[in-house]
Amino acid sequence: MDASFGSFAAFWPFYLREHARPATRVIHVAGTWGGVLLLLAGLTLGPWWLVLLAPLLGYGCAWLSHLLVERNRPATFRHPAWSLRGDLRMAWLAATGRLGAELRRHGL
């Protein structure tokens, strides 16, 4: 758990603000889903190197989006556990069509 936030609920609005630009979110979500698919493929089909590629794809896309689009420091460096949870939540909300409503709810 991250000591600087009392709960994931307190971290979540911060996470969303760190991903304010739509292009950042698109690249993030693509990297997250790509990483999840590589991880699942590696675990179920057997090529171990797919498991190793999963975090490289996921974090690589995320970090590049922060560097090139959002121009901020990835939350992963300061809040690794909750940042991963935020990535997965944002990817799920995007996949289920609920990310826009969540952003509006937080004033973004």
Notes on the structure:
There is one protein chain. This protein has helices at 8-17, 22-45, 48-70, 80-95, 99-105. With 108 residues, it is mainly α. The chain has one domain (19-105). The longest helix has 24 residues, at 22-45. The chain is globular. The mean pLDDT is 94.
Write the layout of secondary structure elements.
Layout: H1 8-17, H2 22-45, H3 48-70, H4 80-95, H5 99-105
Helix pairs in contact: 1-4, 2-3, 2-4
Please outline what is shown here.
The protein has 108 residues and is mainly alpha-helical. It has helices at 8-17, 22-45, 48-70, 80-95, 99-105. The longest helix has 24 residues, at 22-45.
What amount of the residues lies in strands? Answer: under 5%
Q: Element order, helices and strands?
A: HHHHH
Indicate the radius of gyration in whole angstroms. 14 Å
Structural class by SSE content: mainly alpha
Tell me, what's the shape?
Answer: globular
Calculate the terminal CA-CA distance, rounded to whole Å: 26 Å
| Poorly predicted residue ranges | none
Helix content: over 70%
Mean pLDDT: 94
